[in-house]
Amino acid sequence: MPAPDDASAGRLRPAVVAFDVNKTLLDLEPVRATLIELGRPADLLPAVFSRTLLTGIAGALVGSWCRFRDAFDTALAQATDLDPAERAQVADAFSELAPHPDVEPALRRLTEAGVRAVTLSHGSPGIAEAGLARGGLTPLVERSLSSESIRAWKPSPEVYLWAAGACDVVPARMALVAAHGWDVLGAQRAGLTGAWFPRTERSYPAVYDAPHVHGADLAGAVDALLALPAGE
C-alpha cells in the first residue's frame, strides 16, 4: 500500500467532484430523532445504517439487487420490533435531512475554482436533492446521481464509471469525496481520484489502499483536490 504522502502521485486536479450523500454531506439527525420518538435508543442508528449497507451491498454482489429504502426497512426489522408503519415513519425521515454546516463553504470553494460538483449515492432518488434544497445549496451542485438508476450499489466499479460517463468525463478527471473509506477505495479502484476525511470514521482503514488525498475535515479534502496539478 502506498504511503499517504505518495498516494496522489500522477493524479490531476479533477474537472468534476462527486460527493457521497448520507453522512458525508447530509446529517442523519432527523432519522435518529424519529427513532428516539418511537422509544428506541439514540445509539441505534449507526448499527441500523451499517446493517443497511451490508444488506444492500451483499445483495448486489450476488445479483440480488434491492432499493436502499428496502434494505433500510430490512435492517430496522432485524434490529427492532417496530411495526411496518413505524419503520416507514423512520425511513420517511430521510426526506428531512439537511447539510452539515461545513458543506456550503466546501461546495462554494469548488464553484469559485471552476470545478463542477455533483452528488453520487446509492440512496433513494430525491433525498440528495431535497437535502441540498433545504440548505439552499441547489445552485452549487450540477446534478444528483443515484445508482438506483442502474440497479447497483457502491462500491461496485460500475457505479463510479457510470457517474463519470453521465458527467462526460474520463474517470481520471473525476474525484469522489466521502467520509467512508470503503467508498473512497471503490472509487479509486474504478480509476477516480479518491478524497477522504473523517466524519464518522476516526481513521482511514489501514487495510485499504491509501486515499489519493485526505484532509482533517471536508474543507481540507476539497483543498487537497484543488491543490493537485492542473491537466490540459
Describe this structure in words.
Helices cover 40% and strands 12% of the residues. It is an alpha/beta fold. The chain folds into two domains: 4-26 and 97-226, HAD superfamily/HAD-like (Rossmann fold, 3-Layer(aba) Sandwich); 29-96, DNA polymerase, domain 1, CATH 1.10.150. It has a six-stranded parallel beta sheet with strand order 5-4-1-6-7-8, with helices on both faces. Helix 8 (181-189) links the parallel strand 6 (174-178) and strand 7. The radius of gyration is 17 Å and the shape is globular. The model has no long low-confidence stretch (mean pLDDT 95).
Features:
two-stranded antiparallel ribbon; Rossmann fold; 2 domains; DNA polymerase, domain 1; 8 strands; six-stranded parallel beta sheet; 232 residues; alpha/beta; single chain
Which whole number gives the mean pLDDT? 95
Overall radius of gyration: 17 Å
Total DSSP E strands: 8
Name the overall outline.
globular
- First-last Cα distance: 29 Å
Alpha-beta content class: alpha/beta
Q: Any idea of the CATH class of the largest domain?
A: Alpha Beta
* SSE topology string: EEHHHHEHEHEHEHEEH
What is the correct CATH architecture of the largest domain? 3-Layer(aba) Sandwich
Largest sheet: 6 strands, parallel
Chain oligomer state: single chain
User: How many separate helices?
Assistant: 9
Uncertain regions: pLDDT < 50 for 5+ in a row?
none
Q: What number of structural domains do the residues give?
A: 2
Numbering strands along the chain, what is their spatial order in the largest sheet? 5-4-1-6-7-8
And the CATH topology of the largest domain?
Rossmann fold
